[in-house]
Design a protein that fits this description.
Structural class: mainly alpha
Shape: rod-shaped
Strand content: under 5%
Number of helices: 7
Helix content: over 70%
Radius of gyration: 30 Å
Distance between the termini: 43 Å
């Protein structure tokens, strides 16, 4: 990813240099429209840099970079559009009043800013929901792991059956079933202690209790989703 980032920076730098060479070597009229076009295009490159920073550098983890692609795309579309528009306006500068390109450039910059803000808000919400979902399934994943570990180490049919029940249960938790899950977690902890102590009678009893609590938890989970 670092190599891709370096390539992207080099490509942007080369594009900027080529743009500057074109606008200053080509015989454009160096009037107010010319300088306004150059200034707005330089601003566009800054916007592209900002969008790439927000997308890939601000949060360098892989998931954040994946979510950042829409941000970078908005910046790149605006940058390319501004660059092409500036060259076209420069070529037609003798036919246009100065305020038309200023208005067009300002509208483009405003649209890009709104687009970046909107996309960043959407990305932030997706990240928030992703984190929320991870937290929501952590309890059940933990309990499933405990029971599965016992089932893998034991020939006890009731523990294995309980492990299967956990495997096919909805892992997503919510506040409405927190009490039921707390009772289930306590039962699994007691089951684990009884299993370690080798108390087969307590294991059988606690397997039945955990199974009943899991069934009730799953029932409440379905009710709160309807």
């Amino acid at each position: 990813m670092k190599k891709d980032m370096i390539r992207g920076i080099l490509a942007a730098a080369v594009t900027l240099v080529l743009y500057i060479l074109v606008v200053f070597l080509f015989p454009f009229e160096h009037n107010a429209i010319f300088w306004v076009s150059v200034i707005f295009t330089l601003i566009a490159f800054a916007v592209v840099a900002a969008s790439v920073y927000m997308a890939f550098i601000k949060n360098p983890d892989a998931r954040s970079r994946f979510y950042g692609f829409p941000l970078a795309r908005v910046g790149l579309i605006y940058g390319c559009g501004q660059m092409v528009a500036s060259l076209l306006v420069m070529a037609l500068s003798e036919l246009l009043p100065w305020w038309i390109p200023v208005l067009v450039y300002a509208l483009g910059l405003g649209a890009a800013a709104i687009g970046l803000i909107s996309v960043e808000a959407v990305v932030d919400e997706i990240k928030h929901q992703d984190i929320k979902l991870k937290k929501a399934v952590s309890m059940m994943r933990s309990l499933q792991s405990k029971v599965s570990q016992m089932a893998a180490q034991s020939e006890n049919a009731e523990i294995k059956a309980l492990a299967d029940e956990f495997r096919y249960s909805d892992p997503v938790c919510n506040a409405a079933i927190a009490d039921a899950e707390a009772d289930l977690a306590a039962a699994v902890d007691e089951l684990q202690s009884a299993y370690v102590d080798g108390d087969s009678e307590a294991v059988a009893k606690l397997c039945r209790r955990a199974s009943a609590l899991l069934a009730e938890r799953n029932r409440l989970c379905k009710l709160n989703k309807t």
